[in-house]
Amino acid sequence: MLVSRFYGSLIRHGFCNSFKRTSRLYYSSKEHTNNNTGSPRLKDELDEDQSSHTRGKKLKPSKTNFLVLDPSQTGLLKRRNTPSYFRSNNGKRLSILEGVELGADSNTRNSRRSRHSTKILQEIESQRKKLLVFKSSVSKEQAVRSIDYQKPSTTTMSRRRYDQLKHLLDSAYTLPQLRAYTKKYYGIAHSKTTKDILIEMIVFDYWNCEPNDFMDESEDLILERIINVDIRDMYLLLLTNNGKILNNFSRIGATLAVALDENIMIVRGTSAIIKYVEVSLSNILANVNTMTINLKKFMSDHSARNQIMSDAKMSELISLIQRESAVFFELMGPEPGDDIYRISAFGHKRVSKAQNLLLWGAQYHPQLLERVEQLGTNEQDVNSFERFPFTDIGCLDWANRNKEWYRLQKPISKKNAPYITTVDYKKTIATDEKLDKWYDFLMYQKKEAHIMPLKLDEAPKKIFSMTLGQLLTTINGNDTLFESRIPQVMTKLLELPLYDSLSSKDELYAMDQHDYYVQLNFIPNLSNVPNADENVPPIELWFELDEYDVAVTNSVRCITQLQQKSLFLQIPQQPRDLKINVDTVAELTETYEEGLENWLSRQPGIRKFLHDSRLTFQSRKNLVIPESMDVNLHHIDGEKSCIQYDYVNAVYHRILRLKYMDKYLVQFSDIKGGSSGANHTQVDFVGGELLNRDDFKKFVKDISLFV
User: Are both 381 and 317 inside the same structural domain?
Assistant: First the structure.
């Protein structure tokens, strides 16, 4: 979404050069001149006389020195960091469920383990492929503390417990960790002592443990307990923060293993540790938040008319949401067709996130019309093209990261060619005949989307633009995605001048030339739309961000996409593809300057949404975004409707405006969608509003020559 047509440049204040003047010097030494002649005595007298007149005096330097610093050298211009809400941690995310299919039945099942067996560990080993065993990966300091936790509270113990304690130290800790423990707690490193001898010294000499052959072994042995956990609680324990709850239990000395197909958890530890684990699990599972939802109706109310999601895609979407938001979907009805689900999670925020992801996964875009064109190819070229995998999934959103994407490219062999041939980009520029067809598609072809015609105070704006990127497809070609991340163009892009003229070069360094916005996306709940055959366009709220990453409320612009056409130009001979866009957009509210006291008086639902919101994106704790807002839409036939719009997601924009060919606006955006959204850069060339056929042709040809 382009914001250039809705926001002017922010007023920037000048910055004066900073000067640093060198410190004056103070002298108290004697000065000698080569012109002094005569006897040594006379010379000494002259020197003594001059010294008496200058000692301790401040002498004016012969030349005043100034050090002039550029504004960038003063350190006053600091890089503005991305708000914490939009920072992505995908690169650091590890999954304990790697390779585990949620809800999938195992095809190969071993014989069911007897729950009355006294040799649990041997059976755990035999079923290792069916278990997820939690181990603690800790630093040396944590290992040292963990060793001290193993110190028994009583010195007298059974012979079996004594041997068990030594075996625990031998199997759970390394020799350097044991030496670090004795050095920290007893001041001796035992650098030349073997592991067996050191363990014996720790248990017998340092801990003063004494085995008693007459003590009952059941009182102090490490025990094993089987805990029955239902499938919902099992998945929540595994999904939430990648199993952090179970890993925390391992840090207190418990060994845990879970059997997914049998819904049991095996806990190994002392009786006190096992009791602690049981009580903690009971308290944790008692705080599960749930929400009941008719999933089929919910998705139908938030999907375009006659575009209901299939059962296979719905099942895939549920699986993705379970992983992304750590929730569990449980079918409540006796029959699969009932579609009543209970969504469960630890905490209300995770349940709300799952609901947002359902709205996101609905892919409500009734206004969107797309087409793919392959440019500058012949039959020989087509046969030489190959699909290359796209591996930078960090720039994709949560719904697309799970798919395998490919880009069609023309491979170049370095072995057969003495040099790498360069592509003649002029041959990839479309002919006038093709440009005419593209213009007709973008201007005149309509999509039977049955979008509600709106009565607006101002006529909609039709904006032409072109975006650089790469056209990606799945291996079967069913899904298409245009990824706008193009790192190769960065150097040439930053050579362009700024779009807004500056009074001096110093302002380029003294002021941040970027504009910062946050975009809130909403889709309608079609259940309260009067006409059952009509769709309602989605809505976006755009805010300016201040220096503290707080949305400026009175800067809000309510924008709706009435029509959006995209023409993908696939160019396998080049490192990038193109997308031509024509966006028909309209504003549903007046600006604050236009409304003043009556601002948003005709949209009380939006005003209430702003009043109930706390859009502080630097801190997640203080952020409050209501789940929905009511918007008044005025039908072109005079009927007014109050439509509920549900919040989907937020996107952060850091925008730099440049100029190309001294006439085209270039919008260079750094876009952050947070942990679930896409995080990438985007380059948009804005051609203007309502271009005629000749202007459109010139615009496309000019931008095609940029790279």
Answer: no
